[in-house]
Amino acid sequence: MSKVLEVNDLSVTFALRNSEVRAVNDLSFTLEAGETLAVVGESGSGKSQAFLSIMGLLARNGRTTGTAMMGDINLVGMRTSQLDHIRGKDIAMIFQDPMTSLNPSLRVKTQLSEVLVKHRGFDKDKATRAAVEMLERVGIPEPAKRANAYPHEMSGGMRQRVMIAMALLCQPKILIADEPTTALDVTVQAQMLDLFKSLTDDFGTSLVLITHDLGVVAGVADRMMVMYGGRAVEKGNVNELFYDPRHPYTLGLLHSTPHIAHRAARLDPIKGLPPSLEHLPKGCSFNPRCDFCFDRCLEERPPLMPLAGGREKACFYEGPLQTRKVA
Q: How far is CA 97 from CA 149, 197, 253, in A?
């Protein structure tokens, strides 16, 4: 497979009134053509900010360093006028809340068709027909009727499908979905994940799935990158990370996730709270919450180290990790 995105040493810093905070620290990863990469971690781990920075959508006080290469184009540091030719066409993003992402005063067909007019040069009628066809493709019933609706006239699941349709209209190389199932009930979540899988297969689009829910990852993603305290702490094949985690934080996330085969077992959540990015602990950022912490973890911050089979972890502990505790 060929790389469609290669990110190296990506850091995101926000200037505060009397200080600054680094939300993402030296993040490096690749995304292959047609694959699904899951980026997981608790709120505040830096996963959303990393991809907002790649899209050029940081808040005004944000600053990005490093590189994010799409072919020979570095997305980091590009002017907005340059990014406008790439966003929506080659790389698209679906945000967590579709109600705030859609314009409440414009009909759905207007918001969809303008993407095609801008990026593919369609006239208004052709763009509208293509928009209706895509609404049907993403499973919206009576697509011609729904195209004339306003966002508030649709359910949360339908609005999310509209956002997916908008993102896929130009058949982008990369689709970034930021917590796409958070506001949806379980049944609609399953439908959305099936939709992502079928559409990325059909279009050959590479998908980045940003989530804190490991249940969303299983069966959809090919690889997984676990983030904590603004850093990547483990990377690898999804099945390997699920059944043989090598970082205590990944293990903690798995213990915090309900499993149908362990319905009688109590969940074993990670103790404590995620660290403040302004005041990260000395040494490993996870050491205050880690059951496997030892002296070295309190003094040194572990780098991301390669393991056999192409996996990586940022942890000094080399002993066995129990995959699931039994109540």
A: 18, 20, 24
Domains and CATH numbers, the chain: 3-90+172-313 (3.40.50.300), 102-171 (no CATH)
Centroid of chain to Cα 55: 12
Spatial separation of the C-alpha atoms in residues 50 and 88, rounded to whole Å = 18
Closest alpha carbon to 131 in 164, 173, 92: 164
Extract the tokens encoding 221.
Answer: 């993603």
Closest CA to 138 of 108, 178, 107: 108
Instruction: Read off the pTM.
Output: 0.90
pLDDT in tens, 55-98: 999 999 999 999 999 999 999 989 998 998 899 889 999 887 76
Q: Which residue has the tokens 């942890």?
A: 315
